[in-house]
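Subgroup meeting minutes
Present: P.N., E.W., G.H.
Scribe: E.W.

1. P.N. recapped why we're keeping a running log of single-chain structure predictions: easier to compare across weeks, and new members can see raw inputs and outputs side by side.
2. G.H. added today's entry (330 aa).
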Amino acid sequence: MKIAVHGASGFTGGLVVAELARRGVPAVLVGRSRERLRETAGTEVRVATLDDPDALAAAFADCAAVVNTAGPFTRWGGPVLRAALAARVHYVDTSGEQGQIHDVLATAGPDAERAGVTVVPALADDGGPGDLIAALTAARVAPGREILVADLRAPGAASRGTARSMASIVARGPLEYADGGWRPDDGGHDPVVLPGERVEVASFPLPGVATVPRHVPAARVRAAMRADVVKLFGSFDPGAAELAPAVLDEATRRAGRWFMLARATGDGGTATGTVTGPDPYGLTAVIAVEGALRLARGEARPGALTPAQAFEPAGFLDALVPHGVAWRVE
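Output recorded in log:
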């Protein structure tokens, strides 16, 4: 079994390749530059550009799954997804871009079903755990009236790829789900109260608004992020994004910590779920690889699915615990 990694010469792509190597899974490195791909530890290199769909599909053809790590996904994700479908291989990506994730889930299902493969976007440290913990939290109070998915990580270093994606999604603006459909978020959130801390939050286009309403029958789903981080990401216009470092050193990576919260209100009262872990970029690689391998083993039905639709939520989160992740619902 081989797993293709598109964007393997990039920061996140290199971490995905390293995680595959740690698990003893052969990686096929796919990108536009043979020289850059050869700088990444791997056994097989295939050159294919986004404007050559036949070559891209051929690069994926004998692989069990594709992990797409090359963002901004709003700009560059479409050709990779279409090539994976043409090659009839499973697809996951590490996108955190709400609008792109919404579009993939809304449109890719019929083609994925015809190809007999599964498409799961948003397998990163925010979208994956956020969707999984929201499913588990909402189940405690079903039927739910309102769900909040919040990213409560403290400000930290961001790579150039993250900065580019943030510039892309901030320009599009946040959505909320209400009245049976998606619409622009009207803003305004109460602070999130945690043990010993009162966190000011603001609306932000997190993946959860695109994913959670597809499997949780809530009247309203909203997303928020720590207000000071929203301010930081709002400063990433396309020019400023290019000034961010392409790669974060290991010490900087490991100093970071991500924290996703889901709060569900329903007829059964209110439930809160949290999931947190170290090294946001390293854990993104772990999450994406875990998802790709589960698809390769046939653990999900064909179609375009959210993480919680594709995988049993508690089992997936438990698989992350050896990597320093902790989760709970109360």
